[in-house]
Design brief:
By secondary structure, this protein is of the alpha/beta class. It is built from nine helices and eleven strands.
Length: 284
């Protein structure tokens, strides 16, 4: 894995879908990672007319063949790489291409955001083969960032409704660490009706719970913003826990801004006007 404390320009391959309307996935990750001073190469898994969260049935174009061709050209270039950040994949062919890219760059940081479910349910568009494939990617990851729903799926356990006991959240996080041998950021967790946050567990630290105030609204793409913000801060040189705290603070800040500016929740979280705040946070 590449040392995240060096001062050289860091290069990240970002593998997610590209939604043409409704901020999420690549349209969030690219500006965040660029703002962190990273060189980012996008690798779209699929092209969507809109995201899938309440904007009707989108047009979806699978790009797994294109992924293979792009990765093949990259292999010939033999460029230096710091990290691979993968998230949503809609079928097993896309997951296979991601796994091949992990093999192509074995000594880089592999971060997997296993986008397979939320609100207690697996995404209906994903079949058992995709779920199995996402578990396989998590086994190859250095860091995984599941929400609480995805954590139970990854552990083959029945979902339990919130709020949770602190001991249960620590149990889940440790179980994920034991099964997938990766550092864990368990997102979207609560131990009361007034707080929401994450539990982070790395090789260097015991599980730590980081909480922020619970906000009674949700904006599409908030999870993508958190993970991208974490990776940018982490590769900038912050510790694992510091980067988690930075991502949580920035995501909360953007959610409040989005709400007070009257943004439609389906259109995605407003983060662009606050990019200077993110840059300040990662340089602290």
């Amino acid at each position: 894995m590449t040392d995240n404390n060096t001062n050289e320009m860091k290069h990240v391959i970002c593998i997610q879908d590209l939604s043409c309307f409704g901020k999420c996935s690549l349209t969030i990750a690219l500006p965040i990672l660029n703002a962190a001073g990273l060189h980012v190469s996008p690798l779209p898994t699929a092209l969507l007319s809109t995201h899938t969260g309440g904007l009707g049935i989108p047009y979806i174009h699978d790009l797994h063949t294109d992924m293979n061709a792009i990765a093949g050209h990259w292999k010939k270039l033999n460029f230096p790489l710091t990290a691979i950040y993968s998230a949503y994949a809609s079928n097993q062919k896309q997951i296979t291409e991601i796994a091949e890219l992990f093999k192509q760059y074995p000594n880089t940081l592999h971060l997997v955001d296993p986008v397979i479910g939320d609100h207690g349910k697996r995404y209906s568009s994903l079949n058992d083969e995709v779920i199995a494939g996402m578990k396989m990617l998590c086994e190859q990851a250095d860091i995984i960032t599941p929400n609480i729903t995805e954590a139970y799926i990854l552990l083959d356990e029945v979902y339990r409704i919130p709020p949770y006991e602190e001991s249960e959240l620590f149990r889940i996080t440790q179980a994920l660490r034991t099964r997938y041998h990766a550092d864990i950021i368990l997102t979207g967790v609560s131990i009361s009706d007034h707080e929401l946050g994450c539990v982070c567990l790395s090789k260097e630290n015991a599980p730590q719970m980081l909480m922020s105030e619970f906000l009674p609204y949700y904006f599409h793409g908030s999870g993508d913003l958190f993970t991208a913000s974490f990776l940018g801060a982490y590769l900038k040189g912050q510790s694992f826990t510091q980067a988690c705290r930075c991502a949580m603070e920035y995501t909360t800040m953007c959610m409040k801004y989005s709400f007070h500016s009257g943004q439609n929740e389906r259109y995605g979280i407003c983060f662009e006007p606050l990019l200077s705040d993110y840059i300040h946070l990662i340089n602290q």
